[in-house]
Amino acid sequence: MAQLSDKRLNQLKESIPKIVGLRIKELRNERGLTQTELAELVGKDRQYLYKIEKGRVTPNVVTISALVYALEISLTDFFDFKI
Amino acid sequence: MAQLSDKRLNQLKESIPKIVGLRIKELRNERGLTQTELAELVGKDRQYLYKIEKGRVTPNVVTISALVYALEISLTDFFDFKI
Question: Taking the alpha carbons of A26, A27, A28, A31 in that order, is the dihedral positive or negative?
Fold first, then answer.
């Protein structure tokens, strides 16, 4: 197991929030939900969801689990992307 | 899509960090790594990894991605559990 270089860690810091945000936005649109509707389903406000979708904040695993649960998809399907 | 009740949200807040922590510990042990060794691979300190494994902190998606990357497993395989 190799140590992750600072460059790799920074790459993850940059890319992961954006990929996760786009996934949530894509799934939300597929289900015809507005940001306000999805945010309300998980007890968050629209602005916070907007920042998540833009990759401007790094959501924790509980917030993602709630969103994924509300979007009716499994975590393993949600995270089916390469890092 | 149903709104998540406060009870369900609290359930996720309780269970997800614990499940994620146990998954990381299980994978770390499978690979014969100490907490210190895994923590160093991702530029974190042992105490922080200890808290993650105990479910006492809720890691964000970048921290999990780094750990999962260091443990050489895909995110989709890591998150292959029911919520």
Answer: positive
| pLDDT at res. B3 | 80
Provide the domain count of chain A: 1
Write the CATH number for B18. Answer: 1.10.260.40
Q: Is residue A4 part of a domain?
A: no
Is residue A81 within 8 A of residue B75, CB to CB? The reply is: yes
Q: What is the pLDDT of residues A47-58, one digit of tens each?
A: 999 999 999 999
| pLDDT at position A25 | 98
CB within 8 Å of chain A, chain B residues 51-80:
58-62, 64-66, 68-72, 74-80
Handedness of CA A47, B19, B69, B66 (dihedral sign): positive
Q: What is the pLDDT of residue B5?
A: 86
Express each pLDDT in B41-53 by its tens digit.
999 999 999 999 9
Domain housing B70? 12-78
In a domain, A83, yes or no: no
Closest alpha carbon within chain B to A71: B1
A24 touches chain B (CB under 8 A): no
Backbone angles phi, psi at A80, to 5 degrees: -80, 65
Q: Is residue A23 part of a domain?
A: yes
Is residue B7 in a domain? Answer: no
